[in-house]
Amino acid sequence: MNWKDTVTDPDEVKVFLALDGPQSTWRTMGGIARQTSLSEERIAQILARYNLTLTRLAETPSVSGSALVGLIEKVGV
Quick one: DSSP state of residue 74? Predict the structure, then answer.
């Protein structure tokens, strides 16, 4: 499923554009927040809505200990 066919809310589109960047596979919520100017709380709400349909959390956190999230179409299921 391609996120561009599903996601229409402007805030959600910002998050998915951040996840779909050419140099990103896994992203932290802090990194997405800096790129989109959305709060981490808002990003968490968006990611929860699409968890396991368009996005998923990594099994291992980042080096800093932050949770990592990626697009299923990039990182697999």
Answer: H
What does pLDDT average to over the chain? 94
Output DSSP code: residue 69. E
Please tell me whether the overall predicted TM-score, pTM, comes out greater than 0.85 for this model: yes
Give all domains of the chain, ordered by start, each with its CATH number: 3-75 (1.10.10.10)
Long-range contacts (CB closer than 8 Å, 24 or more residues apart) made by 58-67: 58/26, 62/26, 62/28, 64/28, 66/28, 66/29, 66/30, 67/28, 67/29
| Residue where the block lists tokens 């100017």 | 37
CA 29/CA 10 separation, integer angstroms: 17
Across 57-69, average pLDDT? 94
5-28 average pLDDT score: 94
